[in-house]
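Form 7-S
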Amino acid sequence: MIEQRPLTSFFSHFILICGVLLVAFPIWITFVAASHDTARMVQVPLPLLPGNHFFENLLEAFTHGVGNAKGQSVGLMLMNSLIMALMIAFGKIAISMLSAFAIVYFRFPFRMTFFWMIFITLMLPVEVRILPTFEVVANLHMLNSYWGLSIPLIASATATFMFRQTFLTVPDELLEAARIDGAGPIRFFIDILLPISRTNIAALFVIVFIYGWNQYMWPLLITTDKDMYTIVMGIKQMVEAVEEAPEWSLIMMTTLLAMLPPVVVVIGMQRLFIKGLTETEK
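Output:
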């Protein structure tokens, strides 16, 4: 039994509130900046309360772009980022589950050797192998395409390892019962392993979606067509305005829009995400 002391409870809540304020304050400043005009944002002191230009800035940023990204629709950049993040997330989950399924339930030569070869790729992130990966993508004519944005980032040793550990906890009796009922490998995978892995899939989806959404270096390298720019690339271009001062109100509005999809994914899958990371019994 844990004793609740008023002083300890007050101190814990005080630390928690301070942490929330520390995290939320930059988001509040972004929202405030997005609701003022550009002239107000270059004046000192910076405003701490919202202005009355929010919807005007929203329409301007969403349809016309900002600074070096003028003429590029923020809506199109958001769509590009969303498609790339979803392709990476679904691709990682599908390939990792099938890889783990083959490693755990099929007996073939050098089975564990292949698993450790997959696991060793953790030491080789995209930044390390970026030049040969770019050459492969270019030779396959996938530059300026969604396939080129997503396929090199799909393989995941961490996800394969996580699903392998989950599948190892499945009792052998379930496999034997499925065989007696006449279920083949694919039926066993769909009817037994997929429902058991539901919380793991949700947790991995949230992490991988945010990973794909925040990608900057790889899209910057393989995209030259402005119609394929992602939202992170667009924000960087807006800040680097050369001939004129950055339009901070529109940049902050774009940043606010870029926050929304990851926030929606995290909030929408919060319950399954927490269960996937904390529960041992799925």
